[in-house]
Amino acid sequence: MITNNANDDTYRFVFTQVEKVLLIPEHTMIGQSGPELFENENSKFNKHYMKESDNVALFWEKSFGTNPQNAERKFNPDDLLKMAEEVYDFMKYDLYFGNKEESVTNKYKLIVYVINDSEGGATGGGNYPVGELAIRPHHSGNPNMVYHEVSHSFQYLALWDSGIKDAWFPGPIFEMTSQWTLLRRSPEWIDQEFNHFTNYISGTHRSLGHNDNAYNNPYMFEYWANKHGVEIMSRIFQETTLDDKTESGQLNFIKTYKRLTHINQEQLNEEMYDAASRFITWDLPRIEMAYAARGANVHTCQLVQLGVTYRISPERCPSNYGYNGIKLTVPEAGTTVKVNFRGIINSSEYNIHKPNNAQWRYGFLAVLKDGSRVYGEPSKEDIGSASLQVPENTEHLWLVVAATPKEIYDTGADNQWPYQFTLDNTEPDGDKCRVIKK
User: Fold this and answer.
1) Does the pLDDT value for residue 350 go beyond 70?
2) Domain 35-161: which topology?
């Protein structure tokens, strides 16, 4: 009720939420095709074995019986519905997936299927215009699993909301985004799925969008969310266009990101180095404290030593937007440390494509005993140097090298950007950085 102070007129506005429709898609992810089968009480999945809430419809196999809590593989449908609603709200209202006025998420309910077997797999996605996920009874008590798969359903629907119906992002952006959903839900994700973190640390050299990092690397997305607001990830899905394809014809989420944030390649490359240097100690507000104990100052690397020269090993050579954190010995405070850097564009030891696009960024990071950081000025010269005067109370010293090519490649491409360097007044510490002498 609103009163107009000019003439004391009173106006009453009534807002109603339109009830969402349970629409059974013609082809479902469980292989039961045709809405009419869901009307048949003899079908494996049908309306006699289901429950609904405002945004979610839950079907379970007929073999569970009318009360799945009494089944051999039991689960509580009310608890599962409640959890699904929680994730639904999180994706739509916290992460802004499906927040467009004309989004199909405003019209149709999400469908959850519970399959009566003990297999481990779960699937999230959909069949336009409906989001779907299929899980097993033992998943119903695992919030991370439900969050991960519902995130996939919203990713699917957000791409449809973009208007693109004949092209999809290739590669692991879907898994990366679902893992980022977990990171947004819980900054302590490092402790919940520590194996993914250790795999990430051993693969920081891989390209952004590499399949081997699909479940391990939500961190660039967290960097983008910190820089531009959490809605940047939903916008990448909802606002991608066919103009965001690379020369090979693949949609590329990095191109979408560049367009949405109005940055050029040079600015993108600066961001990539900034992110890499921050990841050494997880200098991102939302996760910094949660990652301090187990995640800070633990990056690893492998170098080949040739006399006084160190060369990145082929096994840890960075691909597109991959990086290396190279831990160094800490000299006396006030000492100036220097790296003399040389990019390599011609070597049969590495997988080098389009060498004219080669570019790197490199610089120092000093981590003080109180946890504060001093970032050195990075350099991008193919043959150049960077230096830093070591501050008082430095506990950790790092050289950070990021591969920042001059053009965007298909995500997941394996081309490498090797380099070598010498150091003044410091050396690899031999603990986090393995050195192979030749």
Assistant:
1) yes
2) Zincin-like (3.30.2010)
